[in-house]
Amino acid sequence: MTAAKRESYLERLFGLGGRVAVVTGGSGALGGAIARGLAQAGARVAVLARRRGPIGALVETIASEGGEALGIEADVTERAQLESACERVIERWGRVDVLVNAAGGNIPQATVSETRSFFDLSAEDFERALRLNLLGTVLPSQVFARAMSEGEAQGCSIVNISSLTARRPASRVVAYAAAKAGVENFTRWLAVELTRHYGERIRVNAIAPGFFLAEQNRSLLLDAEGGLTERGRKIMQATPAGRFGAPDELVSTVLWLAGPGASFVNGTVATVDGGMDAFSGV
Ligand SMILES: NC(=O)c1ccc[n+]([C@@H]2O[C@H](COP(=O)([O-])OP(=O)(O)OC[C@H]3O[C@@H](n4cnc5c(N)ncnc54)[C@H](OP(=O)(O)O)[C@@H]3O)[C@@H](O)[C@H]2O)c1
Asked: Whose CA is nearest to atom 21 of ligand 1?
């Protein structure tokens, strides 16, 4: 087979050339790798998060790698900010084809610890974790899926970033795990709802990552010297791969779910965890 034939075959399965993708949490560890990956695959990428500095740095990195990116400051829990963000994307590129909901993470105050039992968790802190992870997936889906539904684009795709803790709750992170379970349920619900109204135009799937080192979980996994905490060690033992994932290792799954080859994949959750979910511990 010639290289050109092979390339056009891969293009039919995974091609994102000319597509417009929005990545919430796009300046974070996982969102950043996903945003760069989408840009490398030919998509124009809007990087959405709250802090200007990390957004700007990522936009520059994508440009230096030959991609096209737009940085937008917005909070995923604030509908008005998301609506302005969506207007900016439409103004710049005229459409939205892909939404990756990667903003989220653990809220330290909403975890059980030696000094904070389950009985002492405050409703406010529990709600903060639900608000960021669950509502922060629902609101961008409302805003950007509406733009997908109103435009000319076909083959649109929403990819929610859940967590292995949605199905297999990890100790301590009670509110985070409950919120991610909500994200998976919402993924299935929305997949059906949008297909009922818009046919095959918009698909909705999720990825459940295992453990990857990032800002929001670093203090749970590594001590001040960079060694593994007890929790970090337990994770190593429970992960057949024996290591944390590297953010780049999520990219191929996002490209698959966002691309034309996944046209019959809807309402599913893909696990990327180094074998952790399959391991009985024995
Ligand atoms: N790392 C892991 O092991 C792991 C495992 C399973 C699932 N996940 C999930 O993967 C996603 C990405 O996490 P990560 O590990 O890459 O975390 P991270 O490095 O801390 O990145 C989080 C990103 O979300 C943004 N963000 C946080 N709150 C936001 C808000 N209210 N509005 C808009 N943006 C917000 C952050 O930027 P600003 O702070 O500037 O807004 C940052 O860009 C999260 O949903 C997380 O739950 C991570």
From this structure: 28
Ligand 1 atom with least separation from CA of 212: 3
Q: Which residue has tokens 């994200």?
A: 183
Q: What is the pTM of this model?
A: 0.97
CATH topology of domain 16-216+248-273: Rossmann fold (3.40.50)
Asked if 176 is an active-site residue, the reply is yes
Q: What is the pLDDT of residues 119-160, one digit of tens each?
A: 999 999 999 999 999 999 999 999 999 999 998 889 999 999
**Residue among 251, 233, 242 at smallest CA distance from 279:** 242
Catalytically annotated residue among 93, 176, 244, 256: 176
To which residue do tokens 């903003």 refer?
Answer: 103
Cβ-based burial of 144 (10 A; exposed 0-12, middle 13-18, buried ≥19): buried
Give tens-digit pLDDT for 229-260. Answer: 999 999 999 999 999 999 999 999 999 999 99
Q: Where in the chain are the domains? A: 16-216+248-273
**Rounded to the nearest whole angstrom, what is the distance from the C-alpha of residue 160 to the centroid of ligand 1?**
12
3-class DSSP state of 119? helix
